[in-house]
Structures are given as C-alpha cells and as structure tokens.
Amino acid sequence: MTTVAEEPATGITARAAGYVHAAAWILGLAAAWGAAPEVGDTRAGITTAYADRPVQVVAQALLVHGVAAAALLVVGSGLLDRARSTNNTAARSAGWAGRVAGALACVQLVMELIAVSGADPASPGRTGTLFEAVQRVDGVKMFAFAVLAAAACAASRHGALLRRWEVVVGWALAATITASGIGYLLLSTALTPTAFISLPLLLIWIAALGTALGRRPRRAVSETE
C-alpha cells in the first residue's frame, strides 16, 4: 500500500515564495536598468550613479536583496521542513544553504543602503569600497546557491524532490553560478558576465524548487499480504 502525506502549509508557502523570488528579481532589474553601476566601473562612476539615481538604485536593492531574500529564506525553511519529514540529509544541507544565501542578501541590502545614503561624488572612496564589498558578498552568496542547487539535486534521487528536468537545470546552475561567484568574489570582469547565464537559470530553478516543495513528498511503498 502506498501512503502519501497531505501537502503541508509550508510547502504551499514555499511554492509561492519561489515565484516571488523570480518576480522580485525581474522587477528589481527593470527598476534600475542602465542606472546601477557594474563591476569594473570606477569608484567615481559608482558614486555618481548612486548620487544621481538613488531612488532607482534603492528600489532595485529592496526588491533584489530584500523581497527576494525573504522569499529565499522561506524556500530554505521549506527544504528544512522537507528534510525533517523525510529524514533527507542532502535536503537539510540545501535548506541551510538557502538560508545562508538569503542572509547574505540581507547583508548586501544594508551595505547598499549605506552606500547610497552616503554617496558623495566629491569623495567617492567610501561608496566605491562599499560597492565592491557588496559584489564580493555576492560572490560568496553565489557559492551558497551552488551548494543549494547541488544538495537539492543530490536529495532528489529516485525523484524524491525534483523532477528530471529540474535536476538537469539544478546541476547546470551549480556549475555556472560557481563561475559567477569566483568572478564577483575577485571582481573579475572576465568571469562576471557568466551571470547572464547563471541568473536566468537561478530564477527558473528557484521557482521550480518552490513548486517542488509544494508537491506532496513521496513516501516509501510497503506491500501488505
């Protein structure tokens, strides 16, 4: 006889959080498209961008490193709940990696708000230093995402969590976002463009992960005579 648990409320919440994460990123990128500074910009250029367009930059920060971070923490909690109910060690590792990534995004938000509030083109050193720190934290966060993706894929043996295409995307994400993480950690303009590949994969995969957590977990099949 096959027994299946009812879909928990945390799973439903995680499913919504996966979509919120993607939506927050898309809206955040649109809010400051062409306005936010990038890795490789001079400190003077970074500070001028913050000083000239603070509303756009803050809106992006609140969405990408605020709303999306909160959604990610919910997804991480959903993974930990799944790990407890299924005794899946890999899912537990994925859950903690998701929480770490969400916490690092919150740190980025705080630093960005400080950088924007104190942006002075006449003295760009402090703002430029904070911007660089935000990017380096982003690199560490990307490593956490890589662990999240790899652990969630490992937790999906026999289809316990993710479907086959979701596992394929997850492994692709783990590889590409590791390269992106190295680029942002080192402020390497040669590697940071890999984010154009890893970011879409991230948004698709986190939404898929949230949906997966909203599905009923599979239980062991036992036969009775």
Polypeptide structure, described:
75% of the residues lie in helices and 0% in strands. It has 225 residues and is mainly α. The radius of gyration is 19 Å and the shape is elongated.
Short description:
By secondary structure, this protein is mainly α. 75% of the residues lie in helices and 0% in strands.
Keywords:
disordered C terminus, 7 helices, 225 residues, mainly alpha, disordered N terminus
Mean pLDDT: 90
Major sheet details = none
- Rg over CA atoms, rounded to whole Å, is 19 Å
N to C succession of SSEs: HHHHHHH
Structural class of the secondary elements?
mainly alpha
Report, as a whole number of angstroms, the end-to-end distance: 10 Å
C-alpha geometry: elongated
Number of helices: 7
The overall strand count is: 0
Q: What is the number of independent domains?
A: 1
* Share of residues in helices: over 70%
List the helices and strands and how they pair.
Layout (H helix, E strand, L loop, with lengths): L8 H23 L11 H10 L1 H33 L2 H29 L7 H30 L9 H23 L8 H20 L11
